[in-house]
Amino acid sequence: MEYVRVARSGQVPDGYVRRFFAGELELAVARLRGTAYATSNYCTHLDCLLSSGKLVDDGIGCSCHGSVFDLRTGEAVCPPATEPIKTFPVKEENGEIFVGLTEHDIAQGSRLAGPRRRGTAG
Q1: For the domain that residue 59 is a member of, what is the CATH number?
Q2: How far apart are CA 29 and CA 101, in angstroms?
Q3: Is residue 10 part of a domain?
Q4: Pfam family of this protein, just one (predicted)?
């Protein structure tokens, strides 16, 4: 696993989620109660951008239909979504946010999106 810089710490204020890229891999990066988290950016229900949603309790809420995912595990904790999203390890150093990615994660790139964004190969 390699940690890739995706943002400056100040770009993700507490209580917010933002969209960033690591190569072609699209991420939702959130900060809740001072801790930064990174997940795939598409809801597993109907492919909406999680970075357009809001943080609720200990999760990231989808703005389209209200699904909520646990930021630590990716598990769907509130329907209609039932499938988890992918989560990634995060570390912050010297005012920068780094996300831990494997070669497989990077190779998949946008394929970590929901069904319609995967195209026919996914």
Answers
A1: 2.102.10.10
A2: 14
A3: yes
A4: Rieske
